[in-house]
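Design request, tokens follow.
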């Protein structure tokens, strides 16, 4: 092959999702696999969303709304922002990539936490930007260290709140202090993909902060609590100048018709969102208590997943994810997300969570939850 590729690709590796479920079931001779590895919502789309999607199928010969006009109007009204302060993408990950394209390049700098969402490093490497991956402190963003890492040429700083993979939050007061400290020429991104799961009492909606900070970008998604991961739709709120920059680099019609229909209908059912939040919050408490009883370390989470320590089991820690899979439970290995010695498990249905805890108990040679 004689083609010459972008030099930036030399530092990148493709994102690798897990094998198809049919392949996993066949490999291990399983009738069922409990899927707790991708932070997905255990419940599907709301019933009303499925009805709306079905009614929209006949119009798929036409291109989708290029500006997501109906969804834009609904969200801007709900959030109390002007319609020109909103952007939409093929998941919030799409918007992260577009932000990198719009502001990064050789000779500029980016700051993010480590471990955090794996795409952040990809954004920097793909644009040949310098970066500082600031280690977490006690599983949380070390915002003081991140502030110290900001340079004159820092163009992007990302805070994942709650953080993936640790599930932790730093809270509104610390974030406000960060915004007061970071220079205005540095875009600060709050990646709030899991914000709807947060149940801590000091949760504060950050969207009104845009009135105070023109360099703030807030990203959210319909993939998680709304159960629309398969449709890929996310949105961002930012100063109109940021939106204009993103519009210059995004592809036309970057959000499908079905994704727009589903998101618009999902917004009409906040009571269902509250039910899912309450379920996950209750299960986080229950799972934590049972993990403590098993002698397993775990990290208190505000998201729909939990980090669980797997050192000290009869199986070598690196083999635990595969040993759980042999028992029909798929989790995310910590070795691939910056957390060796841990696994990340999605908070699923009560039954799914019991199956995970039972498999973990089996590995430890103890009784599972009753």
């Amino acid at each position: 092959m004689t083609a010459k590729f972008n030099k930036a690709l030399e530092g990148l590796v493709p994102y690798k999702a897990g094998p198809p479920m049919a392949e996993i079931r066949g490999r291990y001779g399983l009738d069922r696999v409990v899927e707790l590895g991708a932070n997905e919502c255990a419940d599907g789309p709301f019933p009303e969303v499925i009805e709306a999607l079905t009614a929209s199928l006949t119009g798929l010969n036409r291109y989708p709304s290029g500006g997501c006009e109906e969804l834009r109007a609904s969200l801007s009204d709900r959030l109390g922002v002007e319609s020109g302060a909103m952007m939409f993408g093929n998941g919030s990950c799409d918007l992260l990539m577009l932000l990198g394209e719009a502001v990064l390049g050789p000779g500029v700098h980016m700051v993010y936490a480590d471990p955090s969402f794996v795409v952040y490093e990809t954004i920097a490497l793909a644009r040949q930007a310098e970066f500082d991956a600031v280690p977490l402190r006690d599983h949380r963003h070390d915002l003081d260290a991140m502030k110290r890492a900001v340079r004159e040429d820092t163009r992007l700083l990302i805070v994942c709140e709650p953080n993936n993979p640790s599930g932790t939050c730093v809270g509104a007061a610390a974030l406000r202090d960060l915004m007061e400290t970071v220079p205005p020429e540095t875009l600060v991104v709050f990646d709030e993909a899991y914000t709807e799961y947060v149940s801590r009492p000091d949760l504060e909606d950050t969207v009104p902060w845009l009135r105070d900070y023109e360099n703030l970008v807030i990203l959210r998604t319909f993939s998680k609590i709304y159960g629309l991961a398969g449709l890929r739709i996310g949105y961002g709120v930012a100063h109109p100048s940021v939106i204009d920059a993103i519009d210059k680099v995004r592809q036309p019609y970057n959000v499908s018709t079905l994704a727009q229909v589903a998101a618009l209908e999902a917004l009409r059912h906040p009571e269902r969102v509250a039910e899912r939040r309450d379920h996950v919050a209750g299960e986080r408490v229950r799972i934590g208590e049972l993990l403590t009883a098993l002698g397993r370390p775990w990290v208190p989470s505000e998201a729909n997943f939990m980090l669980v320590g797997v050192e000290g089991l009869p199986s070598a820690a690196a083999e635990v994810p595969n040993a759980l899979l042999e028992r029909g439970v798929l989790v995310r290995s910590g070795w691939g997300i910056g957390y060796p010695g841990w696994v990340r498990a999605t908070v699923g249905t009560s039954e799914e969570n019991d199956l995970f805890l039972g498999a973990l108990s089996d590995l430890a040679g103890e009784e599972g939850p009753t």
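Comment from the thread starter after seeing the answer: thanks! The chain has a mean pLDDT of 95.
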